[in-house]
Design brief:
Order of helices and strands: EHEEEHEEHEHEHHEH
Number of helices: 7
Distance between the termini: 16 Å
Structural class: alpha/beta
CATH topology: Rossmann fold
Helix content: 40-55%
Number of domains: 1
Number of strands: 9
Largest sheet: 5 strands, parallel
CATH class: Alpha Beta
Radius of gyration: 17 Å
């Protein structure tokens, strides 16, 4: 009896959760200490925040260009969130998975639903705050948005937290280091899983 893991396809890991839950922070810590995974950069029509770089944090583009890519079916998922478009370029993800490397997506809950429709074999991880109060203080702590935008994010977060049962794993982000350790454990365990 033998086995060959050499040609194994990579896993697609989807990390999502409410806005300001710390997805970006957890992901950046993970990528610093675990280099056996590729981060898929998303495209967006929103303005860059201070310190963000095109092609590294996001592919920043006009609404017109984004819509033309939707028409060409160039995204594995896309959504309009808080009046901006976000999407995951299909070509990069497909090529990386085919080469045997894992890919991680950091996307919102709408996007995760679309990915589930086209990548049922994906591994879906929900990152949740310890509480809604904690999430509220994180959003206010950013200091980047209007009162109305903050209210919208909190309303959405309350609805989004009810989606947790659609995911394979739940990680409570009460301490970044613990959350990163759990996410890494999930990725490693899934890589070792014997698949049918």
């Amino acid at each position: 009896m033998g086995y060959n893991r050499g040609s194994q396809r990579g896993n697609l890991i989807v990390l999502s959760g409410p806005s300001a839950v710390g997805k970006g922070t957890v992901l950046s810590f993970l990528l610093e200490e675990y280099d056996d995974i590729c981060y898929s950069v998303s495209a967006t029509t929103r303005e860059p925040r201070e310190g963000e770089e095109d092609g590294i944090d996001y592919f920043f583009m006009s609404t017109k260009k984004f819509k033309s890519l939707i028409k060409k079916n160039e995204f594995i998922e896309w959504a309009k969130v808080h009046n901006n478009y976000y999407g995951t370029p299909k070509k990069y993800v497909e090529e990386t998975l085919a080469s045997g490397r894992d890919v991680i997506l950091e996307i919102d809950i709408q996007g995760a639903k679309q990915v589930k429709d086209s990548f049922a074999e994906g591994i879906f991880v929900f990152l949740a705050p310890p509480s809604l109060d904690e999430l509220e203080s994180r959003i206010y702590g950013r200091g980047t948005e209007s009162e109305k935008a903050i209210e919208t994010r909190l309303e959405n977060a309350s609805k989004e937290l009810k989606q947790v049962e659609e995911y394979d794993y739940l990680i409570i982000n009460d301490q970044v280091e613990k959350a990163v350790k759990k996410l890494k454990a999930i990725i490693v365990a899934e890589k070792c899983k014997v698949k049918n």
